[in-house]
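quick q for whoever's on today - can somebody do inverse folding on this one?? i tried earlier but teh output was garbage lol. C-alpha cells:
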C-alpha cells in the first residue's frame, strides 16, 4: 500500500462521522491494490466480505441488466415504457401543463433520468412532506410499485417534458419502473434476474437483492447509519428494490465494477453511447445512460489533477466507481447518510493514490 493511501485510510478511520468503513481498490494497469476497513456489525468485524446496502449504487446492476436485454433485442432504449404495463396502469403519471405525456416516455428516458417524472423518494408530495423523510426518520413501511405510481400520480409535478434537450432530473421513480419492466420481460422476479445474470456469472456469493421476508432474511447486514443513529428499516429496503435494494460487499463490488467496464456483463462497445452525453443532475454530478460522472471543476485542477470517476453512488455512502483512463476501480462504503459529500472525498483521494 502506498504511503498516500495509508494516510487517507488513517484519516478516514479517524473521521468521527464514520463508524463503519469498507473500501477495496485496484489499478489493473499497475497491479496496485489496497483495502481498508473499520467497525463491527452483527456478523463480526467489517472486512472485505461484510455485506452492506448499496442503496442507489444498485442502479448499476439494473443498468447492466437493461443493456443485456437490449443486446438480446428483448427491448430497446426507444421502446415506450407503457408497452410493458396493463392498459391505463400508468395513465396520468406524467401530466404537465394539463397534458398527459406518459406515453412519450421510453426505456432510455428512464435509464438516463430524462423522463421528467417526479421522484417519489425525495421530492415533496402534495402535503409538503417527502417519502424519504419518513423512512430516514425510522418510519419503516412496506411499499411496492403500485404505491410509487399512486404517490407520483397524486399531485407530484414532473420536472419537464420527456426527453427535453439537455435536461436530466434524478428520479428513483424511473428505476422502480425499470425493475418492473425487467420482471415483465424476463418472466422472473428481479432478485432472480440479478442472481442469474450478474451474481452467478461473476461469482458474487455475497451479493443479492434484499428481501426482509426472503431466503436470506436472516443474513447479517451492516445497518445503515444516519449520523450516530442506526436505521432499522427492513420493509423499506425491500421496497426500494431496483432503485436501491442490492446488498453487496467491498470485494464483490470490486469484481462487479471491473466487469461492468471490461465487457464481462454486456458488450463493451455499448459503453460508448452510454457515456456520449452527460447531463447535470446536481453539482458536480452528471448522468449518462444509467451511470454517473463525477469530476470537480477545472479550477480544482490548478491545485491537483482531479480524477474523472464514472459509476454510481448511493445515499447510504456506498460507491462503485472506475477511472477508465487509469484502470482504477473503487468499491466500498462510508456507511453514512448524514454527509453526501463524504464518499466522494474518500473516492477522490483513493483514486489519486491508486493512479499515481
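ok took a stab at it. sequence:
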Amino acid at each position: 500500500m502506498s504511503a498516500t493511501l495509508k494516510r487517507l485510510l488513517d484519516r478516514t478511520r479517524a473521521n468521527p462521522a464514520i463508524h463503519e468503513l469498507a473500501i477495496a481498490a485496484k489499478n489493473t494497469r499497475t497491479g496496485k491494490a489496497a483495502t481498508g476497513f473499520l467497525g463491527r456489525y452483527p456478523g463480526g468485524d467489517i472486512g472485505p466480505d461484510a455485506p452492506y446496502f448499496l442503496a442507489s449504487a444498485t442502479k448499476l446492476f439494473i443498468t447492466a441488466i437493461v443493456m443485456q436485454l437490449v443486446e438480446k433485442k428483448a427491448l430497446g432504449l426507444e421502446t415506450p415504457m407503457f408497452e410493458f404495463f396493463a392498459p391505463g396502469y400508468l395513465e396520468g403519471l406524467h401530466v404537465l401543463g394539463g397534458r398527459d405525456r406518459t406515453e412519450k416516455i421510453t426505456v432510455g428516458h428512464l435509464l438516463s433520468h430524462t423522463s421528467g417524472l417526479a421522484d417519489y423518494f425525495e421530492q415533496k408530495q402534495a402535503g409538503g412532506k417527502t417519502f424519504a423523510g419518513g423512512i430516514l426518520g425510522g418510519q419503516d413501511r412496506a411499499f411496492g410499485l403500485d404505491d410509487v405510481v399512486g404517490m407520483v400520480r397524486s399531485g407530484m409535478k414532473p420536472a419537464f417534458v420527456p426527453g427535453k434537450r439537455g435536461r436530466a432530473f434524478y428520479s428513483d421513480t424511473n428505476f422502480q419502473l425499470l425493475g418492473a419492466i425487467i420482471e415483465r420481460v424476463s418472466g422472473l422476479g428481479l432478485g432472480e434476474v440479478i442472481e442469474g445474470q450478474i451474481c452467478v456469472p461473476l461469482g458474487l456469493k455475497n451479493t443479492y437483492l434484499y428481501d426482509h421476508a426472503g431466503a436470506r432474511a436472516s443474513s447479517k447486514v451492516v445497518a445503515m447509519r444516519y449520523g450516530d443513529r442506526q436505521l432499522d428499516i427492513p420493509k423499506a429496503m425491500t421496497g426500494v428494490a431496483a432503485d436501491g435494494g442490492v446488498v453487496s460487499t467491498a470485494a464483490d463490488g470490486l469484481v462487479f465494477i471491473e466487469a461492468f467496464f471490461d465487457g464481462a456483463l454486456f458488450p463493451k462497445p455499448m459503453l460508448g453511447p452510454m457515456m456520449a452525453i452527460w447531463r447535470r443532475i446536481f453539482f458536480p454530478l452528471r448522468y449518462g445512460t444509467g451511470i454517473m460522472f463525477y469530476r470537480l471543476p477545472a479550477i480544482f485542477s490548478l491545485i491537483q489533477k482531479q480524477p474523472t470517476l464514472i459509476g454510481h453512488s448511493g445515499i447510504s455512502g456506498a460507491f462503485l466507481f472506475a477511472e477508465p483512463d487509469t484502470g482504477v476501480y473503487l468499491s466500498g462504503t462510508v456507511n453514512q447518510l448524514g454527509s453526501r459529500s463524504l464518499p466522494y472525498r474518500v473516492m477522490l483521494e483513493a483514486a489519486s493514490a491508486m493512479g499515481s
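fwiw The chain has a mean pLDDT of 94. also DSSP finds eleven helices and 17 strands in the chain. so keep that in mind when u check it
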